[in-house]
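Service request form, structural biology core

Requester: graduate student, group of Dr. S.
Request type: structure prediction, single chain
Budget code: on file
Notes: please return the result as structure tokens.

Sequence provided:
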Amino acid sequence: MIESIAAYCDDRQTITVDVSRNFYQGEAGKFYLEKEDERIEECRIRQIENKQNVITYTLETFEPVEVGKDLKIVSEKGYQAPLQYRLITQKKFFDEMYSYDGDDLGAVIHGGKTTFKVWAPTAVRVVLEVEFEGKMTCTIMNREDRGVFSCSFDQNLDGAVYQYLVHVNGQVHAAIDPYGKSSTANGRRSAVVDIEALRSRKTSLISAIEKYTDAVIYEASVRDMTIASSTGSKQHGTFMAMVEEGTRCEGEQTGFDYICDLGITHLQLLPVMDFMTVDELHRERHYNWGYDPAQYMTLEGSYASNPNDPAARVHEFMTLINKFHSRNIAVNLDVVFNHHYDVGMSCFDRIVPYYYFRVNENGTKSNGSFCGNDFESRRAMFRKYIIDTCSYYVDVFGVDGFRFDLMGILDVETMNLLDKKLRSRRPDIMIYGEGWNMPTALANEEKAMIDNQSKMPNIAFFNDFFRDHIKGSTSEFEVASKGFITGDAMMIDAAKFSLAATSHPNLYHKFDSPSQSINYVECHDNATVWDKMKICCANEVREIRVKRQRMMNAVVVLAQGVPFLHAGQEFCRTKNGYHNTYNMPDRINNVDWLRKNRHLDLVKHLKDVIALRKKCDGLRYGTAKEIADHVTFEKLGTEVLMYTIKDTLIENTPSTLRIIINPSRNDVKLKSASKCRCLLNAEGACNQEGDVLECPELSVVVYQCY
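Core staff response, request fulfilled:
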């Protein structure tokens, strides 16, 4: 409860004042706007609203309020309050007047000079506090056009640490730089980085994909992949451990060598941008996936060899990207632009309060992310921030794509503008995300969700239809439900739709293009496939469940669309039955390399399936028309499905591909009208010719017919 009064500027000539009922029962007959030159303007009371603890007065000013001035509201009884720039920042005209399109925000080194710029239109004053080579300086920044504050130094301040002291809404906020490229441990200070020197180290892929469906995505966490002692790495849970060569567990590959040997095209990293709840100086105390963002252009310090050395995280991440590129593996980043860990702690709200976060009609914060706040992607400067941040990682590090967490919180226009900007730089860029309809304060037609896929033709989405009908529903409350591969024969038609990337124009239509369908049965969220099967297939012995796991891995890779695999899925990864393990200890989340060694046959099988996908154009159609022209399905009884791809090329040989998917407990055998060669069976790649198509129980078999 306020002690006396609080005043908010909510439009050009609209001020809202809350007067506590403890202060003269909340009654006031007059209010005055006091300006910086001590001039006084009486405001007209337009509306009075009685509330439980306050009386709210809506005032109208004679002249438009001038943003960025130190203004006060004074009541007739002499009490006063600083005028806070609140809902005015959410108005359309605010962006029109103050949005800035320059590419020089943050600390920029050029020509031996270092320039600092920060966008803070509602601030009265901004002071830059810089520490360089043991010397601290404080400089009042100059206010320039469109609310940008700036100052320059005639020297290269690479490695300097700094923060902004922002005088806004009657308070002084210490804030790190939203455009800061690195920081000290736990984000206490931003750090200057010589970006041009860093950019010179960037390498590119040897080859790039022509279309999304040429990709095979493998999702992994930097920490999970390398934290276990069985990884055999010198360091654990760091960028450098992720690219350490020659690591072994009982003589078998782990880590970097293992990933590179799978045959994948894209490694998707769980968040590597700075997140909050892991203490970077004592990372062993806490675990977190990283969906609690703190900084965006700054990388996570717990993944660096020295969190207090701002250069370490930057250069080591560059090394990670370059090493995977040297093995022709692209790197995609999982990004979290839907919410911030904490509004009050965020540099966004400390620098421009009330601007960056979405509000409901009643002025409360939108919470469609269920994290307490939603970013407002329609605000010009946050839309610019998303685009600038992604462009930074592409231009400087050579990042190859982005997976958007809770993309349905963001808006269609922002995603299309991002796509246009990045595609102009990288025609092979990948942009995809979670297209769920989130309950954010945004009209459905504006949300970047699956239902609006036709408005975003170059954006891909995680296909929950595929997931839920191949594996079975995935939520914690539906873990006992089955899908086609886990034994529900009633799902056979849904399996057809799924294998066609739900984009076949004559079948169930979810996407306009197979390139929009990210096909998966497992990701970091929810129970692993193996853990789910312990419940939904509880009546089956372990050997049977292993066969179902192998089938699911194969179906993900052989389906039309874009295959997506979660690290460890290929060897029955378990998280001990837990679903949401975002903050559970390493013993739950770590990749178990000993378990991998027990399932080398499954790993080999996945490698063979990926290799087959790459050989066959018909498994990678990029348009719905191609699928309609070439892909058909036939039921072999009630439980077995034959997926046929006609008139395709396999290593330049015209062929028909017949894929038999048999999740039943009966073997299948049928005569072929033409000569066939078995390319893949339950053991993996093969080369057996004949005129009979055979598929044993619980297996996927692929035949080339010619």
